[in-house]
Design a protein that fits this description.
Pfam families: SH3_Tf2-1. The protein is mainly beta. It is 6% helix and 29% strand.
Length: 97
């Protein structure tokens, strides 16, 4: 079964400065704005820039806002490449103070 599962896996190697989307769960992150329905809330937030370095073989450090109250190191499975024009300004604040 491991062989069949690994056929669908893709190793995405990101570089410093690349833009990625971050998968967060609003019902677990108390610092996120809560909408009316958690089931219909956004799954991916961002884009955020990969900051400084890769931490270990499966973790990256992201450049987040100081007021985000979220740890800045995330596993590769929580990141998705951002396709589109490079943002000229940081994303709008999605976190509460």
């Amino acid at each position: 079964m491991k062989t069949y599962a690994n056929l669908k896996r893709v190793d995405h190697i990101s570089v410093v400065g690349e833009w990625v989307l971050l998968k967060l769960q609003p019902y677990r992150q108390s610092s996120l704005h809560c909408c009316v329905s958690q089931k219909l809330s956004k799954r991916y937030f961002g884009p955020f820039r990969i900051h400084r370095r890769r931490i270990g073989p499966v973790a990256y450090e992201l450049l987040l806002l100081e007021s985000s109250h979220i740890h800045h190191v995330f596993h590769v499975s929580l990141l998705r490449p951002y396709h589109g024009n490079d943002p000229t300004e940081p994303p709008t604040p999605m976190f509460t103070l």
